[in-house]
Amino acid sequence: MPDQEPFRAVNQPAFPDPTLVENPSERCPVVLLLDTSGSMKGAPIAELQQGLAALKYSLASDTIAMQRVELAIVTFGPVQVLQDFTSPTTFDPPQLPARSDTPMGAAITRALELLAVRKEQYRAAGVGYYRPWIFLITDGAPTDDWQEAARLVHAGETAKKFMFFAVAVEGADLAVLTRIAPPQRPPVKLKGLAFTTMFQWLSSSLKSVSRSRTDQVVPIENPTEGPRGWASTT
Amino acid sequence: MGIDHVSWRYAGASRIGTAHVALATPCQDAHAVATISDARGGPVLIAVVADGAGSAARSEIGAGLVCASVQAGIHRFVEAGGDLASCARAEAAAWLTAAHGAVLGYASSHDVDARELASTCLIVAAGPTAAVCVQIGDGAIVVDDGDGFAPVFWPQRGEYANTTSFLDAATIADAEFSIIARPLSRLAMFSDGIQMLALHYATRTAPATFYAGLFATLEAQGPGHSPSLDEALGHLLDRPSILQRTDDDRTLVLASRRPA
Prior knowledge:
heterodimer, A: alpha/beta, Rossmann fold, seven-stranded mixed beta sheet, B: alpha+beta, Phosphatase 2c, domain 1, five-stranded antiparallel beta sheet, 7 helices
């Protein structure tokens, strides 16, 4: 059910999720920040949609990952929480719209807030968590003010509050994306429309993370190398 | 200054179930919460939850009428100097009869069958020294007066999982009725939509894990009622983890006068 509420600030009260305590597994929250602007219409959005289905299938069939990974989707534009954090088993890949402009800055800010609320709920329930992942996928350039969002991304990445991945689809403004992505993890370019391969990589990375200790640094397979590579460096 | 003079803080939300969204029926749960002062200036919390019957076409109207009428009835009782500690069962029956009368009145003036307006009814009137609890149908009232959370009554169920009793002339006599002769400090009320989360069926208990975090959040707020907390509670009731357990409407009311 899409979140139709207006922008909800983190400092507003939020009740903890009482269902969290039923599964005390550590959680790995993942926010997919998906560009659904008009330029994604056609093949890109269809491939992205198929990739999401592959991601669900792969994570939900893994007994550890299905208990630990939580997926959320924020689309832009307009900025919308299409899916709040949920387990892969109950994640039903939503229909992605392709319309409107590209308010990437506001979408990033919304994703960071969603993450902050979820972390607060983990803490309230006494549930441990892994460093969250934010996965931005875009084929365009921000049509809003992105400087503040970039500052939050860099600060959060440096403070190890999350890991921010930026994936550029053909047509993306790489110059701006490079300034939004943290310097320690520059954006990568998606090969063609290899969304399914990309999400398979994301799934296998998350499976490794979900089998690690929460304080452990898990080596992640380089997405730009090998036969399973789905990206090239910019 | 004892606990009886600390003001209540409370929040409540009723949210539509996915089954009702699919059928394009409205949310058939209703709730009403208010605080008033008794003759001696002590705070009295009045909370009513009504779950309109899914099989009844206009039950959202009935549920709303029941909440408003019962709340008004208790208000009059307290205003007239009525003491909750010695409230007779017949008094509570009068609140229910008046609520049913409101439903019958609506039915006749709108030319609908009163059964199309059927709903359950959960009532708590919590004063400085005692609380009156009344229940017809499913859902539950859960209280904590320092010894942990416990349901006041177990949900009234019919033979089958989807049947329960509703407020009408015949069920008023069978209503659950109890006076808790202590100052209540915490209370939760909910419709059957979240019963499976808020109650443990095998042991007929209320799992503290469900309530602890909710009350911690409520008690971190200032006294009184804040709409943003209602909104936060509604947001919680719409979380995927809760929606995956039920397709029914969900109502949750939380109230506490335990200082943070």
